[in-house]
User: Fold these one by one.
Assistant:
Number 1:
Amino acid sequence: MDLNKACLYIVDEKLGTKNYPFEAGPEGTGMKNLLYQYPVLRDVLASYGIDIATRDINSAESSFLLFSLENPHLVESVKKDGQIWCLLIVDPPPWVQESWDRKHHGRFDYVFTYDETLVDDCKYFYCPYAQDTEYFSIPEIVSEDEFRRRTLATFVSHSIHKYPDPEHPRSTLHLRYETIKWYGDNHPEDFGFYGGTFTNRNYYFGFRGVRFVKPLIPHAVFNAVAKRVQRNLIKVYKGQLGPLEKFEAIKKYNFYYCYENTTGINGYVCEKIFDCFYYGIVPIYWGAPNIRDLIPYDCFIDGNEFRDQESLYHFIKGMDYKTYRRHLEQAQVFLRSPELERFTVKNAINCIVTPLIARIESRHKLVGSR
C-alpha cells in the first residue's frame, strides 16, 4: 500500500479509467461534465502529498485512500488494514439503490451524502451535490420584449417513464412524461422538450409488457404505429442536445419544468435549478422538501402548489413581465448571497477532506506503527 496514493473508483469503464474525471474538461458527456469537482479534490490532496488517479492507474489495493463514486456493492477489492475507504453518494435511490442500502456501507470508514437526516458526523457526513458555479456568470435580465418573444416553457431530460415506478414512488420520471403529453395534447405551441433518442427508442410509446410484444412485430410496423401513437408528443420534441448545448436551448424559453429525479430527499438539489438561474429562466421546482431552507428566495415557482398541469399552465401563461422579472432579480440575489457557498465545489471538497485531515497528516506514523 502506497501512503501517498488515492484511488477514485468509478465503475463505468469510460468515466472511471484513464484519469477521465481529471482531464475531461467542461464538456464531458451527456448534458455537461458532472465530474468537475474531482480536479479540485486532486489539487487539495496534492497539497497533502497524495496523488489521486482512477482505478486503472492507482489501484484500490495499492492506495491509502479510496473514494468510491456510488456502487459500493461493486467495489471488488478487499479492504486492507490501514486503508481509508470513502463512499460518495450522489445519485438518488431510483438510480443506484445500493448506494443508500446500509448493508453495503460496512466496509467504508466514511459515507458522504447530501441527506442531512443520515448525518451523524461519525461515519455519515454531509456533502452537497456540488455545482460548478465558477464555470458560469450571472446573466443579464431579459428585456420585456425578449420575455414576450420567448416560448413559454421547456425542460431537458434523457430519463422519462410513461408509468410510475412502483419500487420508487417518489420518482418524478413519469411526471415528466405527463408534462410532455399534456402540452402535446393541449398547447404544443407553448412548449419544447429536448432529450435523447426519442424517435429511435420510442420510449414514450408503451404499455405493460411492451418489451415482450415488440420482438414479435416487424420493426418498420412497430415504428409506424409508435409514430402514430406519439404524434402529439413529437409535436413538442425539439431534438437531442450534445454537451453544453442545453444552455443555449433553454434561453429560448421563459419557464423550466425543474423535476429532480426524485422528491422526498432533503438536500437533493442537483444542477437543474442552477442552470435556470445562470441562464435567466424561471424554474418550476419539484424536489427537495427543504428547498426553501436551502434557497430562501422568491426565485422559483413551487410546482407542488398546483393541483394539476392545467392550473400551472394558466398561472405561468398569465404572468406579467413585472412579476417574472422579480423572480429573476431574486435569483441574482441568491447567486450573490452566502447561501450559494453551500453548493460550491470548494465547499463540497472541503466537506469531504476535513474529516480525513487528521488521519491523512498522521498516516505515516499510524501505519508505520502497525
Number 2:
Amino acid sequence: MVNFSLAKIHDGSLPKRAVRTLILTALAIFAIYTATKAFLAAFSNDDFPEGLAVKNLLLPHIFPLHMITGGLALVLLPLVFALRRHRHWHRLLGRIAAIDVLLCGLTAFPVALVAPVTGWSAAGFTMQAATWLSLLVLGFLNIRRGRKAAHRACMLLMCAVTSGALFFRIYLALWAIFGHGRHYELFYACDAWIAWLLPLAVCAGALSVPRQRLTRLI
C-alpha cells in the first residue's frame, strides 16, 4: 500500500488528481451559487442591472421562466452525468433535464433578442441556445438508436455549452475588476461568444483524443 502510494506520487498522478478535484469542486460551488442566484432572480429582481431589468419588464413571464430553467440546468446536467452508472436515476433525471433544457433553450431566443445590449451579443446568445438545443436533439436521437458513445459525446458537448453561463459571469466579473469601465459593449459582445465557444472547443478537442491517451494527459 505504501509503495503504491509512493509510486503514485512519483509519477505525478496524485497531484494531478488533487488539482482536478479542486478545480471541479470550485466549479461545482460556483455552479450552485449561480443557479441559486438565477432562481432567486426570477422572484426578486430589484437590484437587476438596467439591461436585465428592461428584459424583465418586456418579458414578464418568459424571462423568469428562462432564469428558473437556466438555474436548474446548471444543477441537473452534472447530476445526470454523475449518475450515469445508475441506469434508473440517470434516465429519470435525464428526461427531467431534457425538458428543462428545452424550455430554457426556447425561452433564450426572446430573452436574447429583446432589448439586446448589442446586436453581436444577441447573436452570440442566440447561437448558444441553437447549439444547445441541437445537441439535445442529437443526444436524444442517438440514444434512441442505441448509439451510446455518440449520445455521451453530445451530452458532454451540451454540458460544455451550458458552462458558458458560468464563464460568462466569470469573464464579466474580471472585466469589472480590471476593465475600468472601458469598452463595455465590445467586451460584452465578445463574452457572449467566447464564454460558450471556448469550453465547447476544448470539449470537442478532448473527445477527439483517444481515451487512453486522454487518461494519461489528465
Number 3:
Amino acid sequence: MANKHILVVEDREPLLSLLRTVLEEEQYAVSAYREGHVALREIVANPPDLVILDLRLTDMSGRDILETLRDHGDGGAIAHVPVIVATAATLEADTLSQVIARNPARYANVSVLQKPFELDDLLIRVRQALGEPEGNQAD
C-alpha cells in the first residue's frame, strides 16, 4: 500500500487535517486541498490514485468536480480515478447514489460515504477503491 497518492478535497480544516493524518499513518502520500478549483487543477496535472471528495465546498460543488473528472478526455487516467464522495448532506448523498446506480459504467469506481463516518470505515473504502487487501488493523 505504500506510496499510493490520495488527494483529499475538504473545506473544513479540522476534518481535512484529521484525514491527512490518518491516511499518512497508513503510509499513503496525501495531498490536501480546501478549494475545489485548486484541487481540480492538481488532479488534472498529476492524477492521484484516489480522490476523497466533499460535495459541499466553499468555491464550487464537489459534484461539479466529479462530473469534470468523468467527462475528461478519451477515457484517460483522470476519467478513471477512483473517487470516494464524503458528504453530510443526506439528500445529496441519496441523489448521487441514484445517479451512480443508473449509470454504473460511468461511475464504476465512485462510492458515497455518509458523514459522520468511522475512520475504520473510510480506510476500508480506501483499500477497496485502491484494490488493496483489507489486512488486519492493529491499534
